[in-house]
Specification:
homodimer; Arc Repressor Mutant, subunit A; Tetracycline Repressor, domain 2; 2 domains; 12 helices; DNA-binding
DNA sequence: AGAAAAGCGTACTGGTTGGTACACTTTTTT
DNA sequence: AAAAAAGTGTACCAACCAGTACGCTTTTCT
């Protein structure tokens, strides 16, 4: 059972992470000072070090929290309704919207940029992010292959193609410039991804 | 004509950039101090500020230098020998090897990571890097489309598919973890990229 | 030869940073 | 009621950093 003190301690800890998250996202790791976090928190610096032994530890906690936000959603959008193309279109569109969202882009930049300082975070992010998405698609594709609705082949590799197509186009452009893609561009890319995929993996050559 | 003084000044400037490049690559922008650059150079701090008005300016000069190293190579590898598949395989393999090389990965991380502080550098990098590659492929593809060796379509979009497939698979994995892909993995991915591309754009449906 | 430019070396400034110390108050547990 | 835990506020430290100032030597141009 959770004692009252432990509850409040966790609340305070969460508040610290939340306030730090805003600063990390806004200004990056290096430009965010612990004093600034304490000020934004309204509390004292001593409190910070009672919860996190160092700035690095606070950053790691923040990243882990963000990553867990991005889990689970994908597998939800991948249900089979009998129409493979429609199912894929829907899921791909969801995926594109998500990885092109500003919070997601900021997280990408942060993880890649500070990847040198925090090698483990990069690994965790990859496994729970892109890799998890690929696995979800692979499971869906595998099922359709078994049913004969897709040409049989390596489902994991096929899913890799989908992820690559999703993360190599608009996503790359958005990562470097801050040109936000329009909704139409996103929808067009989603269709193009599904088109390319089905050209490679449709059960029978489309007329 | 270049006077002797100007020559030596440029040499010294190049030496500074070279020495700074090593530190930037090793430790990142934030963790590289100007004093450290001066020490590694063997010279004095005053000299640094005679060449570069600020640390940011030095960093920008370093990045621009690196980017120009990565230009031009790609278009060289894209010649037509009459065999589309072979031509593409060769060029894709070259591209993959290059973007998966350690210097290239480090540059990626640096540009993305410090992208917030230097927004223009991200744009320049994109235009001279991924975008330039895409244009080179688009030109090749356009020519093959005209000759009837590839199904007619939007050459720029087709090239985008190649670039996306190249930068979405092993490259993503390499960016986050520091797992260096093996030569076999790279070759396999190159073949897979060409396979997928030709399935979408081959002039006639393969048997 | 003499002026000018470039570089060198060192010491310094003003500011910031991560992290600590300590005395104090509030809340919760026992 | 007393002990323990948590948080607060402030002052502080040692280290570091970008950038400056200045006097010195060496090289190059005219």
């Amino acid at each position: 059972m959770m004692t009252r003190r432990e509850e409040q301690r966790l609340e305070r800890r969460a508040a610290i992470i939340e306030v730090a998250a805003q600063l990390f996202v806004e200004k990056g790791y290096g430009a965010t000072s612990m004093s600034a976090v304490a000020d934004a928190l309204g509390g004292s610096k001593a409190t910070l070090w009672k919860h996190f032994a160092s700035k690095e530890e606070l950053f790691a906690a923040f990243i882990e929290g963000r990553i867990s936000l991005f889990r689970e959603e994908v597998s939800q959008t991948l249900a089979s309704t009998g129409n493979v193309r429609a199912d894929l279109s829907k899921a791909v569109l969801h995926l594109l919207r998500r990885i092109l969202s500003e919070p997601s882009l900021v997280l990408y930049r942060l993880v890649i940029g500070e990847g040198g300082r925090f090698p483990e975070i990069g690994r965790i992010f990859y496994e729970r992010g892109p890799k998890a998405n690929q696995d979800a698609f692979a499971m869906f594709i595998q099922a359709r292959m078994s049913e004969g609705e897709l040409r049989k082949g390596d489902a994991q590799e096929a899913a890799g193609m989908v992820i690559a197509l999703c993360s190599g186009g608009l996503h790359q452009r958005a990562l470097w410039q801050d040109s936000k893609p329009t909704k139409k561009e996103i929808e067009a890319e989603a269709e193009a991804v599904v088109d390319h995929f089905l050209r490679s993996y449709a059960a029978k050559a489309p007329k």
